[in-house]
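Weekly structure sync - notes
Attendees: PM, LS, DV (DV joined late)
Agenda: review two folding runs queued last week.

Item 1: First target. Sequence and structure tokens pasted below for the record.
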Amino acid sequence: MPDRPDTAAAPAAPPLTNLTRVGGEMFSWTEPVARDNPLLTHLSVELAGPGGTVLVAGPHPDGLVTALTTGGAEVTWLLRSLTDAEQAARAHPAVTVLAGALGKADLTAGYDLVVATDGIQRLNSAEGDQLPAAELLDRLARAVRPGGALILLHDNRLGAHHTVRLDPGAGHRDDAAWHPAEAMDGPAARPQLTAALTGSGLEIGTAYAAFPEPGAPTVLIGGETLGDVASPLRPWLRTVLARAYTTAFRGRPVLSDPRRLIDRALRAGAEDTVAGGWLVIAHAPGDRDRPARRPDVLVGDQHGIRTPDAAIRTGPAPREPYGLRRAELVRPAAGYPLEERLLDLCAAADVRRLRQEIAQYEAWLAGQSRDGLIDGPAALADLSDLGVTPDGPVVLSARWAPAEPIPAQTALVRALWQFAVRLVTWARPHPWPLTASAADLAAILTGMAGRSVTEEDFRAAVDLQVTVDAAEFGLRPAERRAHRLALLAVQPGTAPLDVAGYHELTEALWRQRYQASHLLAMMEWTEQIIASRDAQLSRMEWELRFHRSRVSGRALMAAKRAYRMIRSGPR
């Protein structure tokens, strides 16, 4: 916690006329706030509209408050930290800031929109009684005037982000982790949350499952798509969620890779159970016009918001880092994911069908190229981004495309090499377990496509992958060099390079020990074979010397020499 401002300078500071202390404010306390979230900001601004009154309950990013005021809304901001409230009042003179607990604030006037996308955990104050979760939700609901709306994001304590968390002592070490007891965390499932808001007089408009974390959601799934395993969006959702969890958990210590848990949940239609949280938009009965039905799926980042049907630009025009450009492509299609099929064929050691799938992919990629060069989303699409339909492969989702065409050979080698890296680092079974490295495995896969590969091809493929990762994750030059070396060094026993969970690290350690024991056993077996052959040769040599020492043996050797002389005579 930072220190309080210098008390000697306090009398000289201008008065904060837009700050009101309502009671229960926490002194010498400050709370970190998540970064601006374009998805939550877009939904909040859309609900507020120009001229509406908005209550922002709890700590939120400055960007959200700025966007609301810029859109013409009259904003009131409630913060329990007095230090944060004073800073907010100085930074936003047009905003009315309330310092204190939600239970102490007078909200009877009502608001057109109540924004609580930080949840309810930080609406109570340590300087007073702790209101139960049901009471907090009821107070938020009663703050909505007739015709108004509430947008609430509630943390899921059973979410994958809690399940895989590996941060001992965080609940006692970090001030931001302070929250009421488990019994006061509120509803434990989305139906419980919507039932609580309905019981407070609100009507549920939209309810989303938010991924990957409630503090920074980038994917919202709701409507009929949520839990529907037969939806044509399913293959695309698996790709989108895998990318979202990769970005969120890259380089963070976790118990296990959350992408595996989410993938299994999607297969079972249980993604709502392990979601990071639930975003609910509820309305109070009234005559105010409501927006049209929202899409079932929203995917957002700093560049904009995408739906399965369209893209909404909310940020500045995208740059072209490292010679790449943004490719906002979403194309749900009926079929099967190519990478999933290849993984299944590798596990079954079905080399014939594996060769057919890879050859089909190579033919499709060649058809996308001109004069040996390829551009567009297909050039940088991973095998996980591709689906196979009755008409052939298609790109389901893409985020990047090359600004200039690249060699089709490089695109092919990169895709197959990346698949080989996943086979190795994910410890997935395949027909060639004795390959020395991911490069060797990629050479085999490229050969199945009818292509030869050189060391220069591999280097170009790795450099291209490093470029894509640098653009995706904002890697600095030193991080790019380290990442490139790590990719070149992938071999059996290497842990995942992006999300290295404790389970995956333990699995990699077991594989290394197994390989070491296997090599030792092979060395021992080889030594035994060599010793056995040496003994056999020694015995044969002894027998040969014994026979040569006898008369019959000397006669046989003389006849052998004569035969050789007769054969070599004419030459």
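Item 2: Second target, run right after the first with the same settings.
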Amino acid sequence: MRIGWYINRLRSMGPAEVLHRLDEQRRRIVSRRRDDGWKRYPSPPLHQVLRGLRDAVLAATPTQRQAIEAAAQNTLSGEFSALGQTWPRRDRDQLFAPELWRLDPVTGKLWPGPESHTFDIDFRHRDDRGDVKYIWEINRLQQLPPLAAHLLLAGDDQAGAAIEAAIDSWHSANPPFRGIGWASGIEVALRAISLIVTLDLVGDRLGAATRLRVGEILAASAYWLPRFPSRFSSANNHLVAELAGQYLISLALGTESAAARNALLAEVHKQILADGAGAEQTPTYAAFTAELILLCTAAARQAGKPFPAAAEARLAAFADFVAWLPRNAIGFGDDDEGRVLTLGDEPGYVRSVAAAIHGLLGMPGSMPEPDDFRSLFFGAPTAPAPAAQGLQTFVQGGLSIWRGEMNGRDVELTFDHGPLGYLSIAAHGHADALSLTMCIDGEPVLVDPGTWLYGSGGGWRDWFRSTPAHNTLNIDGKSQSIMTGAFNWSHKAVAALAQSERGRHWKLRARHDGYKSRFGVVHQRTVAQQADGILVTDQLLGGRRVAEIVFQLAAGLRASRDGATVTVLRGDEPLLAIRFPDAAVDIRAGGDAPGQGGWVSPRFGARQPAERLAWHGEVGEDGIQIHLAAIARSQR
């Protein structure tokens, strides 16, 4: 598998990237002989980065204070949860044992520690220890800013002692370039950001030895990040995190890095498209990228060198994009629940980031939740913005959204006609071209299946990002694009919007070429509003094939079939009627192997059976039609 992975990655690389990878390997070999140990990274004088942060936290509302205290008390009680898992509870007098930083909460096994050089640790292909995402999550030290906020607000000495214990333990257990904590640049950067925010809040309440250790961690991180950057096919959200880390560390060390600032500004326009959609084709990764840029925007303002208006306008475009997304079903593509500033579990993350953007920029927008932590850093929108209604198409992002009324129900429909993903490997994209999702009265009905797991996901990782798992057409159970690794694709379907008609009876038409080379046909889908519902027409241009058309239901819903019509119900309440061309509809949930039935992943690391409707039959240029209609509440 390791050899195959390298071969497939090489196929995605151009000559310049191959040379870069070879030089990167040379630098890693040199690092193995030279860069270990804290003595190489003395702590310089540290400077405040977010100067107004303390006053902002002291102005927290009672609801925000309660949320901060709850998060802090969880940490002080030895609790930590992330990515759908809860770590073993620790005693109050041993909150941060050295083994904590390399313990997998699922397998109970330990990843390599300071005895191993970080670049010798195979975290991509060794799944016997568990998914490396869990190890990295706790090493981000994102539990420290809530502890710092609690210390500032409540004067809780236990919080201060816990911060010192965590920093001292991490420093002792993770010398530079040793162990799994230094293996990835995004992790180096996010950890540094957590420490910078913590010092900005309560640095004067920490002991001199602890502040010295923070300075050493930041100095080592400042050395690491520019030497091993994510470039070429890897230059996605990882690069934004690395550049944000470099920029913020440079401010903390007293000298702004012009190189990091300029590179970060360039990425703003690459990774947030002109219409506000994310280039990686996943709203949650776009929000993560936007939050990193937003934090740097705030820091640049406070440093007296604000970012250009064009960069702030791109952030505003993303926030406006989010305003159109269905409130309770905004996910598609990968989602690993990456955050920058967080109290922990955040189901409304994307909207929180959008509200923070509008807050910092002084614009109306969707208001954050009353306990929102992020708004302490960036502020809240100046006023609520009216809810988006009607049809909106994001041309660069490749997504059309309709929000309106159908049979007395509020309906939100999305139609994906965008690219597979970003850059040559499209790492976080799913093979979901021409997929639909639908919410009725704000609750998900037809859904994207989600993510499940990354490195340890195995065949299930492939299923959740495959075409048969999404609400579109597939041929012979094959995906439109061809996977060649957990984060890699070789052949990539190219989708395009062919027609967009607004009005009372709007119409959208799009097509993709993912099946042309293998099956000689192009899939075209037309989605049109009619007086009594929405008509979906699927065509295969260039021939006839036996195909499958899928509608994946949200967990907790059930389907009842009467001839060619399937009624979707929540409990006893009918929500949606789907009229197929005939009764050749298979309805299944769960199964022991991928593809046996429907599954959804409501969050990273969680998986639930859910009914999957699959119509089978011949499709050609004449097309087949499927009718969707929300059911009025009074109908039974």
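Discussion on item 2: The longest strand covers residues 522-530.
Action: LS to circulate a short write-up before next sync.
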